């Protein structure tokens, strides 16, 4: 118990995660799965300019809409390191590896905010650390972190945003600087990935309701007079105001502009460009082809329930252990060892059931309200989007658990709290020992394919770029991983 509660335990887990994901980043062929070539392509476009707004965007084929797309922050920021690497004469693969390693660091940094969030929600250090460890041990987590993908910036920004929202929501008064941070960080998260918009919007609505509608007997005047403004107009304060205003202006230009011009914050490529231009983007072309070959199914409640239970949840759970690579013959995937597959399968359904059981109790607690409400709205948003595409195309599209990476450690922590209380009720005297045994069993299970172990145990030689200096370790790591895994 004390060992897991120690910050050094979490540091050790993060180090294991970073080392494994970094080795994957250095060795994997380019491109990996999760549309890495798409993200690298946009980064290369940005590398030729300074502005975050792409010049002559319509001249670039194969990426869909680049004129009005809002999810550009990661690509723009990640375009600067490759410029330096390219200037030194290094290859494209070396540039990709640099961005992959930076992506690993970005993803790992989310642990800081996730831990602070869980502790602020009242979760014990023991459960918080264990929940984060389980999350980082999922094969999917290392697979995503080691690729060039905007999820790796969305994760720390999203965790920091939720922490800021909870702190602002539970504070005795409005702290102007904190609310400003909520707006700025939330806007940055949306400019990284547009699917953060519902979380941003719902959180802002809840904050406004909490302070100006549910006033607990206080007048609006009292609320306004109680606002805590910055005491000093220092350079840092003015810099924060200017930087935040710039972020807000870019957010408004992109998303509010899209709503005004096209009626949607994220319009389809076909609403902005010609079909000939959009068809050069493989995702758009695939969707058009599927829609043309399939008569749209009705959006009915029975079909939605069937899709939820038979397709959506099943694929979300199964793909937590998925990883793969792009080879000369196409994309290849594997689920890794059977032990970790079954552990993740049973564990995922256990977490979902326990979280559902205590949902009402949690939503009555003030600190949990923005987390629960924004999480539910976001899940509904993703589900409706997936179900609509399933009905249009006749097959599931983008049903991937990485879209819920922000909420996965929170769900695991909720389940951990419930399990801890059940153990305490059955074993009041020896609960500490039982909890320690359970923690050891969980951690031991992830030696059977957790972190990067599955990758090295099951990766095929054509998944590896043997021109990379780190690839010389592949055979050793592969043998070691297969030795660790039982059966």
TrEMBL record:
This is Glycosyltransferase RgtA/B/C/D-like domain-containing protein. Coiled coil: none annotated. The chain crosses the membrane at residues 7-27, 88-114, 126-147, 182-209, 235-252, 343-364, 371-388, 403-424, 436-457. The keyword Transmembrane applies. Keywords: Membrane, Transmembrane, Transmembrane helix.
């Amino acid at each position: 118990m004390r060992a897991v509660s120690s910050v050094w335990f979490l540091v050790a887990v993060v180090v294991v995660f970073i080392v494994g994901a970094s080795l994957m980043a250095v060795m994997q062929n380019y491109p990996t799965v999760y549309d890495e070539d798409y993200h690298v392509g946009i980064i290369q476009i940005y590398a030729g300019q300074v502005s975050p707004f792409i010049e002559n965007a319509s001249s670039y084929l194969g990426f869909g809409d680049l004129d009005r797309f809002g999810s550009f922050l990661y690509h723009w920021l990640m375009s600067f390191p490759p410029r330096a690497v390219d200037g030194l004469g290094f290859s494209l693969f070396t540039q990709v590896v640099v961005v992959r390693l930076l992506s690993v660091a970005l993803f790992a940094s989310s642990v800081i905010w996730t831990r602070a969030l869980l502790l602020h929600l009242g979760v014990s250090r023991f459960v918080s650390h264990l929940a984060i460890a389980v999350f980082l041990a999922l094969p999917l987590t290392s697979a995503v972190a080691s690729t060039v993908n905007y999820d790796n910036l969305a994760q720390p920004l999203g965790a920091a945003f939720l922490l800021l929202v909870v702190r602002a929501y539970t504070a005795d008064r409005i702290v102007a600087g904190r609310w400003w941070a909520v707006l700025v960080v939330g806007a940055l998260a949306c400019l990284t990935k547009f699917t953060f918009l519902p979380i941003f919007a719902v959180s802002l609505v809840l904050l406004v309701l909490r302070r100006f509608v549910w006033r607990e007997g206080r007048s609006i005047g009292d609320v306004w007079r109680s606002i805590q403004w910055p005491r000093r107009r220092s350079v840092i304060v003015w810099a924060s105001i200017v930087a935040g205003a710039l972020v807000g202006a870019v957010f408004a230009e992109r998303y509010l502009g899209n709503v005004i011009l096209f009626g949607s914050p994220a319009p389809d490529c076909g609403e902005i460009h010609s079909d000939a231009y959009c068809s050069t983007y493989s995702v758009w072309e695939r969707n058009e082809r599927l829609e043309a070959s399939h008569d749209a199914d009705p959006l009915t409640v029975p079909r939605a329930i069937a899709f939820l239970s038979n397709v959506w949840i099943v694929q979300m759970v199964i793909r937590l252990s998925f990883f793969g690579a792009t080879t000369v013959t196409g994309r290849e995937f594997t689920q890794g060892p059977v032990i970790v597959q079954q552990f993740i399968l049973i564990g995922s359904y256990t977490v979902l059931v326990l979280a559902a059981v205590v949902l009402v109790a949690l939503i009555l607690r003030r600190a949990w309200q923005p987390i629960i409400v924004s999480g539910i709205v976001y899940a509904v948003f993703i589900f409706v989007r997936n179900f609509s595409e399933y009905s249009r195309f006749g097959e599931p599209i983008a049903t991937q658990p990485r879209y819920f990476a922000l909420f996965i450690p929170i769900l695991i922590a909720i389940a951990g709290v419930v399990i801890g209380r059940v153990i305490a009720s059955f074993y009041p005297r020896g609960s500490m020992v039982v909890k320690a045994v359970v923690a050891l069993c969980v951690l031991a299970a992830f030696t059977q394919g957790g972190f990067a172990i599955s990758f090295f145990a099951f990766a095929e030689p054509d998944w590896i770029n043997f021109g990379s200096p780190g690839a010389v370790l592949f055979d050793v790591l592969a043998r070691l991983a297969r030795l660790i895994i039982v059966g």
